[in-house]
From TrEMBL:
Belongs to the phosphate/phosphite/phosphonate binding protein family. GO terms for biological process: transmembrane transport. Keywords: Signal. The gene is phnD. One of its GO terms (cellular component) is ATP-binding cassette (ABC) transporter complex. It comes from the Bacteria. InterPro entries: PhnD, Solute-binding_3/MltF_N. It comes from Sphingobacterium thalpophilum. Pfam families: Phosphonate-bd. This is Phosphate-import protein phnD. PANTHER family: PHOSPHONATES-BINDING PERIPLASMIC PROTEIN. Coiled coil: none annotated.
């Protein structure tokens, strides 16, 4: 009888141990998951949803990791930020400004900035802000506006990096601590091209927007240009790739390795991604970044 009792006891102990291990495995999996489907999200600018630009990467991830990928392009940065705070996003391609909005202390989320695209220091084309005025304007440089309080400024949109965040950052470094009260009127044109046209149409005394729009305008109009460049900002860091911290850590590491070697192993996939963001012209690869990579610009976004 004692023999059978020991066998039954051992059997129950083994069953208990099995259930305990299973429970612990479920807990670990719940805390470090590979989402099914893996939800990759970005935002739409104008008519550009970037879906076609991210599809080759999504297909590659499905093939490499055997997990289904769901691509979503939200209407704008604010909608993307909302989706992130609602836990609907695992991987996000977001702008610099969008990342700062997400981390302004008002949003609870689990996303971490882990990668960005790098443009080499000697690249001829870099992501910058262009400050322009009408050709006949008395403003020769930004320093000239210090005694012209009340002039009209055209920006792109509150969510724009090169058309709002960086202009404010540059002006603050010049000593204009409150951009909102210095200018007689600040209008958001809605797009980089529209901000430029505000100057052409006489609706603004100065405009600030992505430098690529200025470059395209000058190429097209040459000596007939009706605007004049007064300053270019320093190169602007490109927006990050965000990972949801709840994703399986091993998966995150492997995905980082895939993205940082993408320009070598899958150059066409990398090139397709860069084509989705005009500011990424000249980008050569993804690089890993520290959590404080964008700290310099945090105080400028709300002024």
């Amino acid at each position: 009888m004692e023999f059978f009792s020991n066998r039954i006891g051992a059997k129950y102990r083994m069953l208990f141990l099995y259930l305990l291990i299973s429970f612990m495995s479920i807990k670990v999996w719940a805390g470090n998951r590979i989402s099914e489907p893996l939800r990759i999200a970005t935002y739409t600018y104008g008519n550009n949803t970037r879906m076609e630009n991210l599809r080759p990467l999504a297909d590659l991830i499905e093939k490499r990791f055997g997990t289904k990928v769901e691509l979503t392009s939200y209407n704008d940065i604010n909608d993307l930020v909302t989706a992130i705070t609602q836990g609907k996003v695992d991987i996000s391609f977001i702008s610099t400004m969008g990342n700062l909005v997400l981390n302004n202390g008002k949003h609870k989320h689990a996303m971490e900035a882990v990668l960005t695209m790098e443009v080499p220091q000697n690249a001829s084309v870099k992501y910058r802000t262009a400050f322009v005025v009408p050709r006949e304007s008395d403003i020769v440089s930004l320093k000239d506006i210090s005694h012209l309080k009340g002039i009209r400024l055209a920006l792109v949109s509150p969510e724009s990096t090169s058309g709002n965040l960086i202009p404010r950052f540059v002006l603050e470094k010049m000593g204009i601590s409150s951009v909102g009260s210095f200018f007689g009127n600040i209008s958001y044109a809605g797009s980089h091209r529209s901000a430029l046209e505000h100057v052409l149409d006489g609706h603004a005394d100065m405009a600030a927007f992505g430098s690529s729009e200025y470059t395209e305008y000058v190429k097209k109009n040459g000596n007939n240009s009706k605007i004049r460049l007064v300053q270019l900002s320093d190169p602007i860091p490109l927006g990050p790739v965000l990972f949801n911290g709840s994703l399986d850590k091993d998966f995150q590491q492997k995905l980082k390795q895939l993205l940082t070697s993408l320009h070598i192993e899958y150059p066409l996939v990398f090139s397709k991604i860069t084509q989705g963001w005009i500011e990424a012209i000249g980008a050569e690869k993804f690089i890993a970044i520290d959590p404080d990579y964008y700290e310099t610009y945090i105080d400028s976004k709300d002024r």
